[in-house]
Amino acid sequence: MTETRFTEPRFTEPLILAEPEQPFWGFAEILLTVAVCVASGIGVVEFAARVLHAPIESGFWSVLEEAAVYAIVFLALKAMFARYGKGLLDSLAWSKPGPFTAASLALVGVSLSLIVAGLQYALMTPDVETPFEKLLNDPASRVAVALFGITLGPIAEELLFRGFLQPVLIGVAGVFPGILLTSALFGALHLAQNGDIWQSGALIMLVGFVLGTIRHLSGSTRASTIVHVAYNSLPFLALLVDGNQLTKK
Predict the structure, then answer these.
(1) Which of 1, 4, 78, 169 shows the greatest Cβ crowding within 10 Å of its Cβ?
(2) Whole-Å CA distances, 137 to 55, 83, 184, 191, 237
(3) Predicted pLDDT at 247
């Protein structure tokens, strides 16, 4: 008679996502950063217009001005974090994208871009010239805006919204409300440049919610940035190739 042996079932290792975050900053630092952003924005635009005689509706100059504002804001954040003995990128969770691969995150971004394009059509988004599209009237502006839209723009937005703002809102309101509030502010920020069209605002809010969810699950703003860059890549690369002014961020 043979002896029957029982073996313990083997289970795969559980997927461990990001640990809960406890940012060392709060609403005081957020309000201070907003004040720096507004003041630097006004100052940079005034300097460009009065001293450098920059055209008002120029995508090329708008990109330079926005880049200058981001530089000032991140310098302010760096100084703010240095008071706590913390580094800028480490504090804003610029780390490996958790359990996700770069390829899978890029696929999410491209798929999201296609879904949003379909939803724009389904929601009958008005086909009108937006303030953003008015910045694209010359080749130099189209190139500058397109390159900015797939490089510095997504990086800066993810560090500020998903790295700096979202952890505080999650800590106060909870995960789902915190991500939702962050995405609502993200959508509101982009609403004016898209002509205050509610369909565009709602869809950008949806994109922000997906980015916020990726950021929370991975614990990494680098992960949400990869998705953001991939999401922006289709419309902005189309802008580079044929000068199409249907791009909506």
Answers:
(1) 169
(2) 12, 44, 30, 21, 16
(3) 41
